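Quick question, first post here. What does this chain look like in 3D?
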Amino acid sequence: MKASRIAAADTRRDRIVSRAAGLLDAGGREAVSTRAVCTAAGVQAPTLYRLFGDKRGLLDAVAAHGFMTYMNSETARAPDADPVENLRAGWDLHIGFGLANPFLYSLIFGDPHPGAAPPAVVASAEMLAGLVRMIATAGRLRVGERRAAELMHAASCGTTLTLIAMPADRRDLTVSHLAREAFIAAITTDAPASAAPGPVSAAVALRALVPQVTALTGQERGLLLEWLDRIAETGG
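> Answer (accepted):
Ran it through. Tokens below.
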């Protein structure tokens, strides 16, 4: 009996999220009123608040649902052997997702809450970190992983929001291409690291592999990570 109640609640939750996402796509955030969502989903307001807590909780669920669709398209793509090309493809997918879903994208990335990132933003950060880590492991990252991921987030989100704000007939994707290449040039080397890499690229590459190290204790790994971060952030 308990399992059937949980299943019913999940079904209602999915239906509410789906209807709210449809309202968002059709009319923006202003269209996602509590009354409109309840009417579209065929539920009463107490049900909505019990499942999501408040309207912000509902919007976070809608954002997570929409971003998961994007994530699924990203993971379905066959990865390139070149990690920098994977980063390029990730950037282009991010821009494409925003332009295809402007209201959803603005909901996810256009209303930041300091110290309280919604699940969709966390998922985006994790995806970016994964792309950056592949470059670091290949010895082609010239800055620290965290800095590179934060820079990509700032550059890609700023570019996407700028393009969304442009009238469609004046939108020029050259802006995205130039921003992408400037970002890549700022964080990567031109070719795989040589046999004698500089201290920064060596530190960044080693840091990416530290989680695989088993010969050190947890405390020793933490100390090593601290040293490698210091080398990467200070330029040697």
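The chain has a mean pLDDT of 83.
The radius of gyration is 21 Å.
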